[in-house]
Amino acid sequence: MLRLITLLLSLLFYHVSAQNMGRDTILVDEVKIVKSRINLFSGADYKVEIDSLQLLSYANTDLSYLLAKTALVNIVNYGGSGSQASVSIRGGNSAHTTVLWNGIPINSLTAGGADLSLINAGAFDQINIVYGASGSLYGSGTFGGAVELNNVASFEKKNDIDLYAGFSSWSNKRFRGSAKMSDSRFSYSGQVFYQDGKNNFTYSDQLDFGNPTERLTHAENIDFGSIHHLSIKLKNHEVNFGGWYQIKNHNIPGKMGIGPPVSYQHQKDSTLKIFTGWKVIINKVRFEFQSAWLSDFLRYTDKDPTDHSWKTYSEISSKRWLNTFNTRYYASNNLCFDMQLGYNALKGEVTAYKMNRKEEELATSFAGQYVSRNLTLNVSFAKEWNSVTSPPVVYNVGMSWYLIPKTIQIKTKYGTHYRRPVFNERYWVPGGNPDLNSEEGSGYDLGIYLQKKMGQKQRLQASVNHYLSVNKNMIIWLPSGGYSKSENTNKVQSSGFELDVEWELNMKKAKLQLSGKYAYNDTYYNNDTLDNYKEELAYKPKHLIKGIVDYNSRKRWGVSVNNSFQTKMSTNEGTKMKAVALTDIWGRYNFTIDFLQLMVNAGIQNVLNKSYQLIYAYPMPGRMYSIGINIKL
């Protein structure tokens, strides 16, 4: 690998020396300058942007519903709208998938994953799935990949106000008001939202004798909050501000099993996230600074089994101050270099830790990119210093090459990953292990991409990606004397491939889009001390299939049919959960009354009314009807 890196760097400097480096003016494409560090240097990553029509259909659900129906990811959900939900990619777990808001990692400091039920899918202009995201660019916890939630500034004349009201089965209601205002110097987008629901659906209890029909109780939730983003241009400067405040109160329902479900558990989540950023371009150099403050709080209560009084069993509070300074130098139109420095202060205040815990981090990273007519080469290195653990140096080498210009592209990369132990894994009493090592491993990707226009009316896009990832120190919780303890395991290996095909037909009066996605994954724990020992990990389906049909009339209406399928999964309890096949249908109708533009959005989720689970013993809702109206002023 060292020889490969040396060869690539030699190629970079060879091409530089062949150019006139003494030029006073370098005409760098404005798009390259505006691009964020992650977007510019992740050209060899397999990245998929959620289609705008799908974002429209699921805009008033939480992020877990959108990803479950449209992306090659695995969603674990504890039952119905508002219930805790997490995402995993390529056989990893939720702590191996980094969720970023405008480049800021928002995974839980204490637990490691991100609760997607706290994220309204319609709050963002762009949602990307990055499969096997580079550890040297995205940071800790990207063995599976990353989910990017972006608010995109638009410096065009625009004034839009949208109001939404939606209602669905089991007394679920959602209300949202949003505004977008911009001109050539500033861009603002913001929204306030509220939702509540009873989630008292009926289901077939597959873990009780005779599979009786039960009604879910104690599953009510209330969720409200606000998200804002502001960008201001001042000559060659750009200043950005963002804010996100949210509170969710959620009753945790009982599990399936003998007798009706019984639970008194309650969870309250609150979060405040704010950031400010500044960019400036001076000649051939781009400078950027960003500072973010994240505060999260969770309170878990339940009835004491002895005297039936309400008791607070856990209060979890975390605070993070995240800072990065980045500079990028454009040596020529073909070559640029990038350096980033970071400082983070982390604090966890958790009753189970017995004392407040603090950590500090320093990080540095370097990246370089060379671009020719059909070839792009990227190299990046990163090192982090943590006051408790010492993560390894990570690097990434990637190549993107057009075999046939604008038609067939090959992408390949090799890199290393890491994940710091989160606070719960180190400090929870009992079970936390202060001697844990960081997870570390390596992996490669190889993908072939096709884009083809067939006449004036048809477009075909297809890709196939193969990957292999190895994690040598994966952290898991193992039984230990009546409780679970976090330990480093020997090795976990994940391999597989993804296939994605999209076809578009533009007709005179309508547009038809067909999309088919398939993923195969094989993930297992391998103990090197035993010959040929393999153990399948929980909640890792081997096959995922997604199929989408979108039909849009040129006039007023459209319809989408979403199909998703995943094969059987093992559980932590040593059982198997059935395969899941679901179909959703969404319809849209647009019309105008005076100065108002209105859109009615109606849908049927789980059309075939299948009983299913995404996590063992927690039922998911059957057929669900939704209707909403969006008013644009």
Task: Count up the helices.
Answer: 7
Helix content: under 10%
> What's the CATH class label?
Mainly Beta
Classify the secondary structure makeup into a structural class.
mainly beta
Overall residue-averaged pLDDT value:
89
Report how far apart the termini are: 57 Å
Q: Strand fraction band?
A: over 45%
- Number of E-state strands: 38
The third-level CATH topology is Maltoporin, Chain A
Q: Categorize the overall geometry.
A: globular
What report would you give on this structure?
By secondary structure, the protein is mainly beta. It has one domain: Maltoporin, Chain A (Beta Barrel), CATH 2.40.170.20. The chain is built from seven helices and 38 strands. The protein has a 22-stranded antiparallel β-barrel. It has a five-stranded mixed beta sheet with strand order 1-6-7-4-5, with no helix packed on it. A hairpin with a 7-residue loop joins strand 20 and strand 21 (394-404). Residues 1-27 have low confidence and may be disordered.
Give the secondary structure arrangement, pairings included.
Layout (H helix, E strand, L loop, with lengths): L1 H16 L12 H5 L2 H5 L4 E4 L2 H6 L5 H8 L3 E4 L7 E4 L8 E5 L2 E2 L20 E6 L3 H4 L6 E6 L7 E11 L3 E11 L3 E12 L4 E3 L8 E3 L5 E14 L2 E15 L14 E17 L2 E19 L6 E21 L4 E16 L6 E15 L3 E12 L7 E11 L3 E12 L3 H5 L11 E16 L3 E14 L3 E6 L2 E6 L3 E15 L3 E16 L9 E2 L6 E11 L3 E10 L2 E2 L5 E2 L2 E14 L2 E10 L7 E3 L2 E2 L4 E9 L1
Parallel strand pairs: 4-7
Antiparallel strand pairs: 1-6, 2-3, 4-5, 6-7, 8-9, 8-38, 9-10, 10-13, 11-12, 13-14, 14-15, 15-16, 16-17, 17-18, 18-19, 19-20, 20-21, 21-22, 22-23, 23-24, 24-27, 25-26, 27-28, 28-29, 28-30, 30-31, 31-34, 32-33, 34-35, 35-38, 36-37
